[in-house]
């Protein structure tokens, strides 16, 4: 058994939060991913995941194995990167279009490291949540965040990560207006929501028993720009919904606080899209691989 491959598959299952999502990231079939996990558990002689009808949880052995895998794989990747000087240097112009959340709120998390790793790539970044025709507008790569799997198209799609949707508010807002204990309490709060044509003007969430709760967002503050909602939430204007990755830094700092964490609002998928060609632009491939590594780190 290829132990490094087994480790990568296991970490991808955990990070992607599912076998199907992991299979898409790895370019493997669902059955192959599942079979590899069974072989890993058999080789280790321990159960790594507790499987349920709704997904899985890590066993205590799985948590320890996951920590060791991340450490080992990070060392292997660092060694590979250190030896990469022998490869042909990647340089030239690269045009990328990204959602506003990635191009503004998450920019500091990845841009400096990308520039350090690829100093000879001249990156042009366009930030927009609107549909962009990669071919007509001459973009090399598009990053997109979607609440549902992407529809079939002429483009290639690589799933980079999946991030839970969470409700948050500033400590100042919650101190003044109180902390909701059930979804029905939200109707008495200021709701900051992203509403676009064709989307339901409501938040949907499920409790531990699987019961669905719907909360209307009409009457609050709505915007089609995630950064505007982010600024409003930080300013104490109300409760908003974001992907956990978008607000990870603020949650760690305590400038934003989770609201109703015991309820689930689904997840959003981060994709890299690029034209379907036989040979991918090396600059585009470098960017896609870099972002996959960035989002693959916990």
Automatic annotation (TrEMBL):
Keywords noted in UniProt: DNA-binding, Transcription, Transcription regulation
Pfam families listed in its UniProt record: HTH_1, LysR_substrate
Keyword Transcription regulation: yes
Domain HTH lysR-type, residue spans: 1-59
Keyword rRNA processing: no
GO molecular function, one term: DNA binding
Protein origin, superkingdom: Bacteria
Family listed: Belongs to the LysR transcriptional regulatory family.
Protein name: LysR family transcriptional regulator
Species annotation: Pandoraea iniqua
């Amino acid at each position: 058994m290829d132990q490094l491959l087994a480790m990568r598959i296991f970490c991808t299952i955990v990070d992607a939060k599912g076998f199907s999502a992991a299979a898409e990231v790895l370019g493997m079939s669902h059955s192959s991913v599942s079979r590899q996990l069974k072989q890993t558990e058999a080789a280790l002689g321990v159960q790594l995941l507790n499987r349920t009808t709704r997904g899985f949880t890590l066993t205590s052995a799985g948590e320890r194995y996951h920590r060791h895998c991340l450490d080992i794989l990070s060392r292997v990747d660092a060694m590979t990167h250190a030896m990469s000087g022998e490869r042909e240097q990647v340089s030239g112009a690269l045009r990328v279009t990204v959602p506003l959340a990635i191009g503004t709120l998450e920019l500091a998390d990845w841009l400096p490291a990308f520039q350090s790793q690829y100093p000879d790539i001249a990156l042009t970044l366009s930030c927009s949540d609107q549909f962009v025709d990669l071919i007509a507008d001459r973009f090399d790569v598009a990053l997109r965040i979607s609440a549902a799997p992407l529809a079939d198209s002429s483009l290639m799609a690589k799933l980079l990560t999946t991030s839970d949707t969470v409700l948050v508010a500033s400590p100042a807002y919650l101190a003044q207006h109180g902390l909701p204990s059930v979804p029905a309490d939200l109707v008495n709060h200021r709701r900051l929501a992203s509403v676009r044509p064709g989307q339901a003007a409501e938040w949907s969430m499920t409790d531990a028993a699987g019961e669905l709760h719907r909360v209307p967002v009409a009457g609050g503050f709505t915007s089609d720009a995630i950064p505007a909602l982010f600024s409003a939430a930080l300013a104490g204007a109300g409760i908003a919904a974001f992907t956990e990755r978008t607000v990870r830094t603020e949650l760690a700092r305590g400038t934003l606080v989770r609201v109703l964490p015991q309820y689930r609002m689904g997840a959003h998928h981060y994709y890299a899209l690029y034209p379907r060609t036989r040979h991918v632009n090396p600059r585009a491939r470098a960017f896609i691989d870099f972002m996959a590594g960035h989002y693959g780190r916990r």
